[in-house]
Amino acid sequence: MFIEFSIYILTGIIAGFFAGLLGIGGGLIIVPVLTSVFLYFIEGPHLVHLAIGTSMATILITSLASVKAHHRHDAVRWDIVKTLTPGIFIGGILGGWISQYISAPMLAKIFAVIEFGIALKMLLDLQPNPHREMPGIAGRSVAGTIIGSISALVGIGGGALNTPYMVWHNVSMRQAIATSAACSLPIAAAGTLGFLIGGWNIPNLPDHAIGYIYWPAFLGIVIASFFTAPIGAAMTHKLPVKTLKRIFAILLIILAIKMFWF
Questions:
Q1: 200 CB-near residues (< 8 Å, 6+ apart)
Q2: Which of 34, 162, 205, 260 is the most exposed place for a label (fewest CB within 10 A)?
Q3: For the whole model, what pTM was predicted?
Q4: Residue ranges of the domains in the chain?
Q5: 124: CB partners within 8 A, 6+ apart
Q6: Cα(25)–Cα(23) distance, integer angstroms
Q7: What is the C-alpha separation between 240 and 120, in angstroms, rounded?
């Protein structure tokens, strides 16, 4: 158990730092790492679901720490957070609940494809050209629902989708990253609820799991990420983020390949 818990803590250190730095929520690292770790320490057919559900739960804590740091730099657009949250929350519950009807191998491949796309975007530094203002309530609700459902389905915080969406609508990169971190809160809350409900009556789940959330992994990750997420958020304003994004993208490609062959 000591080795297993140590891996969770190390995962939290890395995921928390990059979550704060890039506003991504940490799930892009947490899900493939937990899937691999669970293969060694847990038996059962629901390992990918447990990895994604646990990732969602950890993002809730990581985002709190990250948002506090971004808020101190006055970078969070709370007006955008408030208008995106209703759609995000509905989409998050929907994505988490739908996951129970998707097989673990298929869910792993969906995650891999999305992660590879995000990594490619980071590696090539592709950004949409800002050419319009944020849409009204109806448009934000639709966008929030789509972002929330996809993010919850694969266990990511939504920053990889929220950030380019905001930049496309003339929000500065610095504010988009900070605001995406804040939007990860409703995504994580709704996704966690969805995975709890979706896995509530599933048989043969491991000990210490409630629904699709495995609590030893949750505790190990959040103990570390709660402290490293604010460090990453503070470093957003000091480190060469573009260079770090490219390094991070290469790591994501490796993890995506691993997930695709789950």
A1: 211
A2: 260
A3: 0.84
A4: 2-260
A5: none
A6: 6
A7: 19
